[in-house]
Amino acid sequence: MNKPIVAISMGDPASIGPEIAVKALLQDAVHAQCRPILIGDAAVFQQIIGLLQLPAVIHPVQNVKEADFVKGTIDVLDLGITDISKLQFGKIDSNCGEASFQAVKKMIELALAGEVDATVTGPINKKSINEAGHHFAGHTEIYAHYTGTKKYAMLLVEDHINVIHVSTHVSLRQACDLVKKERILEVIELIVDGLKKLGKTNLKIGVAGLNPHAGDSGLFGTEDDLEIAPAVEAARNRGYEVEGPVPPDTLFAKAATGAYGGVVAMYHDQGHIPFKLAGFKWNAAKQKMDSVKGVNITLGLPIIRTSVDHGTAFEIAGKGIASADAMILAIESAVQLAKNKS
User: Global pTM?
Assistant: First the structure.
């Protein structure tokens, strides 16, 4: 009973979220590490189990204390929001947005109250959530809002590349304006702390440039010289092993071979594209992903939040072919962070 309790949200009911959550909880390795409980709608999980003929039984509960934590019997803290008679896989729907949002909000409340040790989020559809009246850009912003967190960042974790972002869900124009010394220094400190809590030993950090060739001494922009380089110098003065600004076209190639334990990306796609190139394996013949590996961790929060680093995959929802690899890795990362809670 000393294993951490890990709450896992169902994600959007019309997505692959419920499927990968159930598939993950059928794995011996998950139960060996933690006591998992799903947060969402029992009817949604019951439907996916019946549709895909998965070997599991749903156990609806009203609070964490009622959970049995027995493999094969899946505990679901039942919110009863989704209208199952109207649920259509792969469709944007405000009811699904409401259900997925409330599952996340409930997990945050449970973690803040100390009833669960960590939270893991399934994929949500941002448009569905916004149509339900909840105007957030994504999970990261929801967690920051409900925990009152001001300094936070997104860390992506994969076998070979660990990348944190200076900015995420903003326009590219806004992202350039957010490249500031103070923020870069902040995320350097966050990633080193996060890597330590994940048990990583390589703490050398590579900081990406913003402009082509990291500005090439001011020829292609001044942000690299005026904001990024001073942040790197300040980090070194605080005792961090850090290098940069490094042109991103070479930085990630070096990181993939272990030259850096972590990478600071200046904006969303700068970090996400190389990360997903390393962790996502597309099968062109079958027109589907053979494997989707990668974990999204929000650093700086007072609670633990990890997530799959892929979307709702509406196009394959309900078909039984979704990979639970990323969900299993997200649960494993949550457990690791729970063990190293400060």
Answer: 0.88
